[in-house]
Amino acid sequence: MLRSQFEEELAKLHNQFYAMGNEVLGQINKTVRAFITHDREMAKEVIEADAKINDFEVKLEQKSLEIIALQQPVSTDLRTVITVLKATSDIERMGDHAAAIAEATIRMKGELRIPEVEQEINKMGKEVRKFVESVLDLYLNSGNGNEEQAYEIAAHDEIVNHYFDSIRELATAEIRKNPDAIIAGRDYYQVISYLERIGDYAKNICEWVCYINTGKITEL
């Protein structure tokens, strides 16, 4: 295969991954909105859309393995394909967590809610969405030697972790005041845990971007 044709195949791989990432980004936004507004129908849409994300993963894995088997890429090209394989798995797990938040939305119907906690969860969700969006933009420019930017974006994970800790403390304090909210509290703990894990997967992709440029596995 000519170099131009090979680069075209890599470009298709990049575009498919970016499309998958944007699909998951939309689901993160939608699932948080559904949870905060108690919209069970929207939550069901998020759960149904998870199949599309899974389909993206299968196609990307097949394409990546096909390129490795048929083209036997080396150096940066090989690292690029490996990164897509690894990062695709991280994106798919983000989608799983978005669906899990949607399931919590449905499960909480009729339970006593705590508005103060949900307001903070909404803020955390916006921060996570912003984090994932920045990571996708970083990936799109991953061939430009931008390890420094990867470090800067990965640092957003600390903001997400701070929200996780503060919301957990707030929810615990509110449940102590009103024990009837304990069932909702269980789901609050789970939802912030899912959001925190999405942040972890976003940071993983920052690490894979560094790998493209340096060939080294870097823990950010």
UniProtKB/TrEMBL annotation:
<keyword id="KW-0592">Phosphate transport</keyword>
<dbReference type="InterPro" id="IPR026022">
    <property type="entry name" value="PhoU_dom"/>
</dbReference>
<dbReference type="InterPro" id="IPR028366">
    <property type="entry name" value="PhoU"/>
</dbReference>
<protein>
    <recommendedName>
        <fullName>Phosphate-specific transport system accessory protein PhoU</fullName>
    </recommendedName>
</protein>
<dbReference type="InterPro" id="IPR038078">
    <property type="entry name" value="PhoU-like_sf"/>
</dbReference>
<comment type="similarity">
    <text>Belongs to the PhoU family.</text>
</comment>
<feature type="domain" description="PhoU">
    <location>
        <begin position="20"/>
        <end position="104"/>
    </location>
</feature>
<comment type="subunit">
    <text>Homodimer.</text>
</comment>
<keyword id="KW-0813">Transport</keyword>
<feature type="domain" description="PhoU">
    <location>
        <begin position="121"/>
        <end position="209"/>
    </location>
</feature>
<keyword id="KW-0963">Cytoplasm</keyword>
<comment type="function">
    <text>Plays a role in the regulation of phosphate uptake.</text>
</comment>
<dbReference type="Pfam" id="PF01895">
    <property type="entry name" value="PhoU"/>
</dbReference>
